[in-house]
Amino acid sequence: MPAERKPASRSRRSKGETARKLFVLDTNVLMHDPTSLYRFEEHDLYVPMMTLEELDHNKKGMSEVARNARQASRMLDEIVSAAADGIENGIDLDGPSRGQGTGKLFLQTEAIDVRLPQAFPSGRGDNQILAVVTYLAGKHPERPVILVSKDINMRIKARALGLAAQDYFNDKVLEDTDLLYTGTRELAPDFWEAHARNMQSWKEDGRTYYRLSGPLAPELTVNEFVFQDGDNPLQAWVKEKDGPSVVLETLVDYSHQKNNVWGITARNREQNFALNLLMNPEIDFVSLLGQAGTGKTLLTLAAGLTQVLESKRYAEIIMTRVTVPVGEDIGFLPGTEEEKMAPWMGALEDNLDVLNGTAGEGGDWGRAATRDLIRSRIKIKSLNFMRGRTFLNKYLIIDEAQNLTPKQMKTLITRAGPGTKVVCMGNIAQIDTPYLTEGSSGLTFAVDRFKGWEHSGHITLQRGERSRLADHAAEVL
User: Fold this and answer.
1) For residues 227 and 187, is the Cβ–Cβ distance under 8 A?
2) What backbone torsions phi and psi does residue 89 show, to the nearest 5 degrees?
3) Same-domain pairing of 426 and 301
4) Kind of pairing, strands 316-321 and 456-461?
5) What pLDDT is stored for residue 148 in this prediction?
6) What is the C-alpha to C-alpha distance for residues 367 and 362, in angstroms, rounded to an integer?
7) 246 and 262 fall within a common domain
8) Distance between alpha carbon 382 and the CA centroid of its chain, in Å?
9) Distance CA 294, CA 445 (A)
């Protein structure tokens, strides 16, 4: 439920109207998620006149906020148009929401003149909404009246006035990102003894397979990586899951020089897992999480170049990212779409320098020719022009994916046509998009929703390989 951590029980409806809460919506909730009107289950909603005014002020433009403001206005229009008995006594949401929300929607239909303390100037929209909440709390002392806002300062001001205020929680995929799927699992020392009964083992194409059932098997997920250290180390992944039994397949060892990918070898266990996902043609969607310096971009580019230029599995690499600046914006950039995106693609250029140094001998001429060949097969695209496109046999890299909203993530991933592989990379601890949190990021959303699909895989890279300085900085700063 959006405004409290645990969803209210459906059985509470039988206790009558007093059990229902009245949620007053701030404008930023509707601009963040227009469908929030249907996300409050059996509770009632109240939309102040100032919220409608602010929606109207923000509806112009092509930004995500403007689009959401227009969609929220359209949804309110549909709800009001469907009202059979007028809007004074509330509009039933059961019909418009198709059963998702069973409460009522109230619109402000009367002038409310509540005097707030002098420290709250009445000209500000936020304070007018607070005045409405104060009025409703006095009018309905028998039921909880709660302000729902994404604005922290608005919630602080409400609590200073003795009003109940909460954040909007419904868009959060996970309450605690520590619970986010990591894609790896360490096996206990007694794993083989506990799962020895009815175990089958065979070899095929140089890989070893184990079919086993036991206490851990139901908990494993398809394409989850398992490992065990010790005298007989094991690195494998779950290839099949059939009820209580699973099939484990041993991995290609990309840490060995004979299996290098464009001259790059895996430096740790998680990088080996990531390369197994990136190089497997059966995996269509890969998500890589990890702090700065864990090798996300380098591994992804190395795997992409190998499969574009050597094995010809994909036609070209397409790279895109969200253009959210860390500091002050430097203004408009000159040139074509590719030239405008170039300043955002410093990570691409840095990693290409590393990969170009591993391309073998040939001197300066050979390296220059290789660099030109590589750049001719990598296209840099802006997110703004993705809608309506279809990518065939492409290797699509979405960098800094933690800055995408779930809606933008869906728009991007659904561009994939036959033969296309999508790789999402990011660090959910470095979100620059306003109102987006670790729990509601599009990257968190994609990791959670794709978990267990046989053609997708996820790895959280733990160990930094950039330098001892970068590793220490990530820990102490």
Assistant:
1) yes
2) -95, 15
3) yes
4) unpaired
5) 92
6) 7
7) no
8) 19
9) 21
- Residue 172, in any domain of the structure: no
Exposed e or buried b per residue across 358-378, where buried means at least 16 C-beta atoms within 10 angstroms of its C-beta = ebeeeeeeebeebeeebeeeb
Tell whether 417 is covered by a domain: yes
DSSP conformational letter for 259: G
Strand blocks (E) in 259-349: 285-290, 316-321
Identify the CATH number of the domain in which residue 238 sits: 2.40.30
- CATH code at 344? 3.40.50.300
> Which residues, including other chains, have CB under 8 Å from residue 34's CB and lie 6 or more apart?
68, 71, 72, 75
Q: Are residues 283 and 316 in the same domain?
A: yes
Three-state DSSP string of 12-81: HHHHCHHHCCEEEECHHHHHHCHHHHHCCCCCEEEECHHHHHHHHHCCCCCCHHHHHHHHHHHHHHHHHH
Q: Which of 466, 344, 456 is nearest to 403 (CA)?
A: 344
Strand-pairing partners, residue 242, are 245
Q: Which amino acid is located at 225 in the chain?
A: F
Count of the separate structural domains present in the chain:
3
Q: What is the CATH number of the domain that holds 70?
A: 3.40.50.1010
Grouped pLDDT means (10 residues each) for the chain, 477 residues: 40 47 91 86 89 89 83 89 77 81 86 81 84 90 91 91 87 62 89 86 90 88 91 89 89 91 90 94 94 86 92 91 64 70 70 70 67 79 76 91 87 90 90 79 91 93 81 80
Which domain-ending residue is among 115, 138, 166? 166
**What is the pLDDT, as a whole number, of residue 4?**
43
- State the DSSP H helix or E strand holding residue 141, giving kind and residue range, or none if neither: none
pLDDT at 113: 79
Which DSSP string corresponds to 174-216? -S-GGGS--SEEEPPTTHHHHT-TT-EEEEETTEEEEEEESSS
Query: Which domain covers residue 352, as residue numbers?
Result: 258-476
Residues 286 and 411 grouped into a single domain? yes
Q: Which residue, among 379, 455, 460, has the nearest Cα to 413 in the 3D structure?
A: 455
Question: 358, 333, 360: which is closest to 345 by C-alpha?
Answer: 333
Would you say residue 381 lies in a domain? yes
Smallest CA-to-CA distance from 443 within 392, 473, 405, 411 is with 405
